[in-house]
Design brief:
single chain; 51% helix; alpha/beta; Ribosomal Protein L15, Chain: K, domain 2
Length: 342
C-alpha cells in the first residue's frame, strides 16, 4: 500500500491533472499519480489542501485521514452517499441490547488476550538476547494469561452492559501480567517500567511510541469499519463517548499485539541507540520518529499472513474482520477473533 504522509508545517497539497502535488514555500516536494496512492495522512498544523485535491481523492477512492501530532485520527474523508449500510447499522444498534453485542465484546478481548499469551511465547523462542530467567518468567506469564481465556468464556452473554464489567476485569488482569513481562525485555535504558496511556502523559520513549502507533492502527480500523458499512462510534465493549469511536477501539483489541506491540518491541531492541533521540522535550515524538513509526506499521500491515485457507495482508485481514462483524450481525456466520499464528 502506498501511503503519503504529510507531516511538515507550511506544506500545501494540491493536484495537477490526475497527479497529487506537494509543495513547500512554492517549491515542489513530490508529485505522485493519484492511481498509485492509497492513503493520504495529514498530521501537522499548518498543512493546507485544495478542494480540487479532495475531489481527486474521492474520485480515485483514496483514503484521506487527518490526525493529531500524537497520532490520534481526527477525521476521515468519506463520500456523500449511504451505500448499502443502512440495514447493517440498524442491526448494529439493536445488537447492543441483545446477546450479539455481548458475544462480540467477549470475542474482541479473547483475541487480544490470546495474542498476548502467544507473543510472550514467541519472544522466548525468537529473542536470543533474552536470558533463561527472563524466558522462564515470560512462559509463566503466558500460561497465566492463557488461563484467563477460560474465565472470559465463562461470562454469560446477556447484553453489553451486563458483560462489560467481567470482560474488562479479565482484560485488565491480563494486561497487568503482559506488560510486567514485557518490561523485562524492553531495553532498560529506555526507562519503560509499566504501560502508560496517552492520558497519563508518559515520559519514556517506548510508551510514547506505543501510543502513537495505536493511533495509526486506529486509523486503519476506522477505514475498515467505514468500508464495511458499520458505524465506528457505536461500540459494544467500549461505552459511548463523543471523543472515542467505540467500535474502532473494540476491533483494535485483537490487532494491538500483531500490528503494534510485536514490531515496535523488535524495533526498540534492534535500534535502541536511535530510539532515544525520537522523544522531544515536549514529551512527543519528533518528526523523524513519527515517520519511522508510520513507515514501520505500513510495512507490517502490508505483510501477508495465513487467514483460513488464504494468505492476506494484515490490512486486508482487518477489513475482512470488519465485514465478518457485518455477517455476524445479519446472522450469516459466527464471529471469530483474529489470533496471530506465531
Amino acid at each position: 500500500m502506498r501511503m503519503l504522509v504529510v507531516d511538515s508545517y507550511g506544506v500545501f497539497v494540491g493536484k495537477k491533472g490526475d497527479r497529487i502535488v506537494v509543495r513547500r514555500r512554492g517549491e515542489k516536494v513530490c508529485e505522485e499519480p493519484a492511481g498509485s496512492v492509497d492513503l493520504i495522512r495529514l498530521s501537522c498544523r499548518g498543512v493546507c489542501v485544495s478542494l480540487d485535491l479532495l475531489e481527486l481523492v474521492l474520485r480515485y477512492g483514496i483514503d484521506l485521514v487527518v490526525a493529531s501530532r500524537s497520532g490520534v485520527p481526527l477525521a476521515l474523508l468519506v463520500p456523500f452517499r449511504a451505500g448499502s449500510s443502512i440495514r447493517t447499522r440498524r442491526e448494529q444498534y439493536w445488537a447492543y441490547r441483545d446477546d450479539r453485542g455481548a458475544f462480540l465484546a467477549k470475542a474482541f478481548i479473547e483475541g487480544k488476550v490470546r495474542n498476548q499469551a502467544n507473543f510472550l511465547k514467541y519472544i522466548v523462542r525468537v529473542y536470543r538476547s533474552v536470558g533463561p530467567d527472563v524466558k522462564a518468567s515470560l512462559l509463566e506469564a503466558s500460561e497465566r494469561i492463557s488461563g484467563l481465556v477460560e474465565d472470559l468464556r465463562g461470562i454469560e452473554c446477556r447484553d453489553c452492559d451486563y458483560v462489560r464489567r467481567g470482560v474488562l476485569g479479565v482484560e485488565a488482569e491480563a494486561a497487568s501480567i503482559y506488560w510486567e513481562a514485557l518490561s523485562r525485555v524492553v531495553p532498560r535504558e529506555l526507562g519503560f517500567s509499566r504501560r502508560r496511556k496517552r492520558s497519563e502523559r508518559p515520559r519514556d520513549v517506548f510508551n510514547v511510541l506505543l501510543n502513537y502507533a495505536y493511533g495509526v492502527l486506529a486509523t486503519e480500523v476506522w477505514i475498515a469499519l467505514v468500508k464495511a458499512g458499520l458505524d465506528p462510534w457505536a461500540g459494544f465493549l467500549h461505552k459511548d463517548n463523543p471523543r472515542r469511536p467505540g467500535l474502532v477501539y473494540d476491533l483494535m483489541e485483537e490487532f494491538r499485539v500483531p500490528v503494534v506491540d510485536k514490531p515496535l518491541l523488535g524495533f526498540v531492541v534492534e535500534r535502541r541507540g536511535l530510539v532515544s533521540g525520537f522523544l522531544g522535550e515536549d514529551g512527543r515524538l519528533c518528526r523523524e520518529g513519527r515517520l519511522e513509526v508510520c513507515g514501520l506499521l505500513n510495512r507490517v500491515l502490508g505483510c501477508e499472513r495465513r487467514f483460513g485457507s488464504e494468505r492476506l495482508s494484515l490490512r486486508s485481514i482487518i477489513l475482512r474482520q470488519a465485514r465478518r462483524i457485518v455477517k455476524f450481525l445479519h446472522g450469516r456466520r459466527l464471529y471469530r477473533p483474529y489470533v496471530e499464528r506465531w
